[in-house]
Write a structure and sequence with these properties.
The chain contains two helices and four strands. The protein has 92 residues and is an alpha+beta fold. It has one domain. A hairpin with a 2-residue loop joins strand 1 and strand 2. It is elongated and about 75 Å long.
C-alpha cells in the first residue's frame, strides 16, 4: 500500500488499512553512515531510506547491503600453482 504517514506517496510493505505496521508505527530516519546514499530521500519530515524502515539496524552488523555510496571491495587471491603440474604443462 501507499504510505500515508512519513513517506507520503511511496509504496510501503508495512502500510495497512490500520496504519503503519512497523515497530513503533513509523519508519526511522537515516543514520550518519547513510549520508550520500542514493536510497536516502528527503521528505518534509526528514531524510528516510526508501529500502529499509530502520537503517540503523542494517549498519549494526557492518555495511548496509543496499548502500550505493560504498565501493565493493573484493579480495583477489593469487591462484596457488602446483609446481609439478606447472612443469608438466610447460613441457607440452
Amino acid at each position: 500500500m501507499v504510505c500515508s504517514s512519513v513517506k507520503v506517496g511511496q509504496n510501503c510493505l508495512f502500510m495497512s488499512k490500520k496504519g503503519c505496521g512497523f515497530n513503533g508505527g513509523t519508519c526511522h530516519i537515516i543514520v550518519e553512515a547513510c549520508e550520500g546514499c542514493q536510497k536516502a530521500v528527503q521528505y518534509p519530515v526528514g531524510k528516510y531510506c526508501i529500502s529499509f524502515p530502520d537503517p540503523a539496524a542494517k549498519w549494526h552488523t557492518g555495511n548496509c547491503s543496499m548502500a550505493t555510496h560504498l565501493e565493493a571491495t573484493t579480495k583477489k587471491e593469487t591462484a596457488k600453482v602446483n609446481p609439478l603440474k606447472a612443469s608438466k604443462r610447460q613441457g607440452r
